[in-house]
Amino acid sequence: MTDLVKAIFRNRANRFIAEVEIDGEIVKAHLPNTGRCKELLIDGTTVYLKPSDNPNRKTKYSLYLVENKGALVAMFSQQANKIVFDAIKKGKIKELSGYSILESEKTIGNSRIDIYLANSDHDAPIDETYVEVKSVTLIKDGIAQFPDAPTERGRKHLEELISLKKQGIRSVVFFLIEHPNGNSFRPNWENDPKFSETLKKAYSEGVEILVYKTENTLEHIELVGSSLDFDLEK
């Protein structure tokens, strides 16, 4: 990712637009993370922008990385799915290994789940597994927390996983910590008690929870290590 452009964060104009300073000039950049990110997006913070080669885009850059407490934090939350998908493909996630079928954005009923895994038995799928990925950047005292803003959509995803599990289908919610300072995980009870309660319910119903983190440099963002600890209590 050597084409990244160093800049200074100045202001969040709205949910999707950040105002950054490049060589003394204020430039608008796409913000590919709809979370609040208040602890990350602070005036004067160093950020790294990814240029776009799409001439039809309203903004030339996307905000890709943010410096925070000595670490580079990945801001491209939509890329979390691809990071996990690629890690499964490379056999980096032992809990999700041993499958011959790997697909992204799998539709089931009225829902679309991030990652689908299965094996084939005479052209019929067996060992089906659905994985919903959540990008985590909020860190408090070394503990990663999700969400950083109330998410009804995220809660519905959990209900979908519960429904699948009740049908006997393996279901997983995968929290990808994209802030290197996060070493364990808990739901953010303070910001979203409904999501947190639903996550606790999902786990009690047999939905699996996996927590991994990324290593972030200016050259790459990739999943590393093994699954981390989590605590679902308030």
Strand-residue proportion: 35-45%
Shape descriptor reads globular
The poorly predicted ranges are none
| Count of individual beta strands | 15
Beginning-to-end CA distance, first to last residue = 39 Å
Q: Percentage of helical residues?
A: 10-25%
Report the radius of gyration as a whole number of Å: 18 Å
CATH-defined fold name of the largest domain: Trna Endonuclease, Chain: A, domain 1
CATH architecture of the largest domain: 3-Layer(aba) Sandwich
Instruction: Give me the strand/helix succession.
Output: EEEEEEHEEEEEHEEHEE
Which structural class fits the helix and strand makeup?
A: alpha+beta
Q: Could you tell me the mean pLDDT?
A: 95
Number of helices: 3
Question: Summarize this, please?
Answer:
This protein has 234 residues and is of the alpha+beta class. It contains 3 helices and 15 strands.
Descriptive tags:
alpha+beta, 15 strands, about 230 residues, about 15% helix, OB fold (Dihydrolipoamide Acetyltransferase, E2P), Trna Endonuclease, Chain: A, domain 1, 5-stranded mixed beta barrel
